[in-house]
Amino acid sequence: MKRSHINYAVDKAHAIAETFRVSLPDFAYFTVDAWRQQDQTRWREVLDLQLGWDITDFGRGDFAQTGLTLLTLRNGLMGSVNYPKPYAEKMLQIQQDQQTPWHFHRHKMEDIVNRGGGDLCMQLAWATSDDGYDARRIVEVSVDGQWRTVDAGETLVLKPGQGVCLPPRLYHRFWAEKAFVLGWEISMVNDDLHDNHFLEPGGRFPVIEEDEPVKWLLCSEYSRL
Ligand SMILES: [Fe+2]
Fold it and tell me: How far is the CA of 104 from the centre of ligand 1 (A)?
């Protein structure tokens, strides 16, 4: 993914948040230069837990088709005395027709909520014991506290305001239809390095081509400070 596309994606994410009247914490507005002017010892929690912007094309190289804009707002660290917080919160921005590919989480339970915009469409399927895709097993999930039953791979449409609870080992794939979707994730502690399993090769993070200077550091890049 080109750096220019990442810089643009964060600029756009700020504008979209403003359109939805969602106010973000200070660190969401720190350019790399602003970060360098901060007393970073005061921001250790943000830096250590990698709160902040996470723009990804899931290693596929086509952000418009397969990609996601995330802002990690809260997180903890499993087994850590310093960061015992057992929950995480993320803002998700999903462009129209942009998909997040099939994956499940080994430990994390998460709620994915459509906070507004178009329809958030989601396909679900259980993982088999060897991490494959179970095409036969029926899926029962809670949408805002109401049980819904879908077949493996059937599309569940989450309208604005609706959210689904995804237990560990439930494969999910989602995309926005009709318009951009402002999504929200409320979950157990998030560990993107170890907890994600993708059905197809690609990965969680982009390979970055540095075609222009960094404006916004991604949360995985704080070691550059
Ligand atoms: Fe997920």
Answer: 6
| Number of domains, the chain | 1
Q: How many CB atoms lie within 10 A of CB 211?
A: 10
Q: Residues 104-119: what's their mean pLDDT?
A: 98
Q: Residue 201: which pLDDT band, with cuts at 50, 70 and 90?
A: confident
Counting runs of H as helices and runs of E as strands, what totals does the chain give? 3, 11
Q: How far is the CA of 207 from the centre of ligand 1 (A)?
A: 20
> Can you give the CATH number for the domain in which 142 is found?
2.60.120.10
CA 103 to ligand 1 center in whole angstroms: 6
List pLDDT tens digits, range 133-157: 999 999 999 999 999 999 999 999 9
CA distances from 188 to 82, 167, 180 (A): 17, 10, 26
Range of the domain at 178: 3-224
DSSP 194-225: TSEEESSS--SSPPPB-SS--SS--GGGGGG-
**Residue type for 224, please?**
R
60 near 39, Cβ under 8 Å? no
Task: Give the distance (Å) from ligand 1 centre to CA of residue 100.
Answer: 9
